[in-house]
């Protein structure tokens, strides 16, 4: 099996990444997602999240895909992909990396997650594959298995964020003991542009809200907004 960086499907998606980065770099740079830099200083009990969680419908109604990354600071990071925040995820997996590791990578300003499935059949949709090798910025972090069901604590997170379209912060834990053992429960949610390369490859590019508002900007921004791309590839 060839390394993931050499697969034709991923190379095709990476070409799209170059154009996407060129567009987003022209924004104002004052993106909401600069909040990542504040994550170590945030405290538990985000009241705004509690209020937003009571909404009956998402704040934004376009067809962009919603992706949530969450986890306790001392635990592993979980990835959930949803077409509608009121519906169960179409893809749900616990990644083989610590939440703190992901936070540090986001502070570099550019993160590319790649999930590779080495399957022998194409009867399932790409997001329905079970076993995935996971890479972060070119480094293999391990293997994970997609899950159909979520635990009660994971359902709690998705329910709390049901009305949130985008954001990053800390959610209240169930108990102080849980916080002491696993650390604060952090989350990041954003809208992503979904690009289907083929039945064996898909990519998700985080949408910078500043870019969408400014219409591309004038290139005078400080470029400080983190960028996140997620690639899914099925290797023949």
Compact overview of the structure:
The protein is α+β, with helices and mostly antiparallel strands. It has six helices and ten strands, in the order ααβββαβββαβαββαβ.
Keywords summarizing the entry:
236 residues; alpha+beta; 33% strand
Account of the 3D structure:
The chain has 236 residues and is an alpha+beta fold. It has helices at 8-24, 47-52, 99-107, 152-160, 176-182, 209-214; strands at residues 65-72, 76-82, 91-98, 110-118, 131-136, 139-145, 167-171, 185-198, 201-206, 227-235. The longest helix has 17 residues, at 8-24. The radius of gyration is 17 Å and the shape is globular. The N and C termini lie close together (9 Å).
Report the sheet-strand fraction: 25-35%
Gyration radius, in Å = 17 Å
Range of helix content: 10-25%
Q: Rough shape? A: globular
Elements, N to C (H/E)? HHEEEHEEEHEHEEHE
Query: Could you tell me how far the N terminus lies from the C terminus, measured between alpha carbons in angstroms?
Result: 9 Å
Structural class by secondary-structure content: alpha+beta
Q: What is the number of beta strands? A: 10
Q: Uncertain runs with pLDDT below 50, 5 residues or more?
A: 21-33, 35-61, 211-222
Mean pLDDT, nearest integer? 76
Q: Please outline the major beta sheet.
A: 10 strands, mixed
Q: Count up the helices.
A: 6
